[in-house]
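Duplicate of #3305? Posting structure anyway:
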């Protein structure tokens, strides 16, 4: 199962993935950290995205996506990360560490990590 960061999930829902991302996401099941839902809500609240959590299309799409909770093990894994950044990104990366789920992201700081398993 893949761990999608917020922006990759939004690109997937919007049909704007790159061809390699699209091929990757077709092959495997998707999961997201619970913090992704918060990020979507904040982005909608700030007017940075059109879709929000009340959108029926989003609700149907999320029904097919595994949701990893923010749990103690994920929070503990943050201290093992080899980068510092946005708290949501750290939680998403720590989710990949704890659950062994390769991360799908375009974020350069996350992609430079030597510890976070990345999807390829």
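Output from current build:
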């Amino acid at each position: 199962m893949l761990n999608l960061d917020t922006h990759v999930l939004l690109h997937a829902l919007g049909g704007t993935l790159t061809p390699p991302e699209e091929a990757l996401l077709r092959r495997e099941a998707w999961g997201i950290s619970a913090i992704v839902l918060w990020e979507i809500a904040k982005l909608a609240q700030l007017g940075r995205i059109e879709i929000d959590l009340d959108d029926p299309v989003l609700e149907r799409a999320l029904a097919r996506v595994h949701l990893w909770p923010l749990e103690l093990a994920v929070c503990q894994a943050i201290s093992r990360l080899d980068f510092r950044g946005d708290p949501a990104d750290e939680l998403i990366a720590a989710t990949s560490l704890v659950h062994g789920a390769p991360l799908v992201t375009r974020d350069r700081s996350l992609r430079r990590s030597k510890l976070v398993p990345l999807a390829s």
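Confirmed duplicate; merging threads. The chain has one domain: 2-111. The helical segments are 6-14, 19-27, 35-45, 56-62, 72-77, 87-99, 108-111.
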